[in-house]
Task: structure prediction
Amino acid sequence: MAPRLREALDDFLIHLRVERGLAPATRQAYERDLTGLLRAVSDRGAAEPRAITERHLVDHFQSLRSERNMAGSSVTRHLASTRVLFRWMRSAGLIERDISQVLERPTRWKRLPDVLSPRQMKALVEAPAPTPESDADADSDAPPLWVRDRAVLELMYASGLRASEVGTIGLADYDEVAGSIRVRGKGSKERVVPVGRPAQHWMSRYLKECRPRLEAPGGSPRLGDKGRIFLTTRGTPLDRLGVWRMVKRWAARAGIAHAHPHTLRHSFATHLLAGGADLRVVQDLLGHADIATTQIYTHVDKSRLKSVHHSFHPRP
Result:
């Protein structure tokens, strides 16, 4: 990549961190997309932002589809990153006009999310259970990790949490009396969501039976605990990868293929809407900034649509 393009990208990433306060994962996604873009235009002869032309951009985005066979949703994400960069470069005086407007948003095929039926969801959250080995060690100091896993699955389904959000929950975020939990979502946005009674029950068991055994002797947290509520056997916060592995493990035990952490979130939203919940309420519970993101879940319950039509249409 040309040095002046690299310098512009570095300044833009600082802008995202300092002025816009975007989360590290979001900034990394911007950097991946835009590094590919600026390398491509650099290879085509552009040595600085002002040298980038509409032809450079069009050729790059055509190559995403023709050479890399990138899905429409991924191209749309790249386009969004590109437009944000060019708006910033225009405001910073690095370019005279925003040429990214020449790019058209690709027709996006929205793949419907994987959703489990209520019966499948019940089988998944109830899959964690003691094994013969854990029964034999019941009197030892080994923590009953299946209790932790059951609490995590129940909480994710009860409150629609992302895997990344599970690892950021602190002890102070969970209000056992109110039955609610404070969650830090994308862009460090906070929301408070209710916790259902089954999840409250397993959270209580986890906090009493499991978490104390994951702490250092004497009750003081191990180095790296950070006050997080869900811990690993090393006493460190349970991260997104750990949650992913947990879900895959118990889904396999329940005989459910292709389940992943977001499946619980999809099922949470789908089941709420199928039960008659208001779309705006579900949007707030999920922490979606745009209700259009939530509307993808309205596909799910065609039987309910037929029932409503039959009940209220003047000519059923």
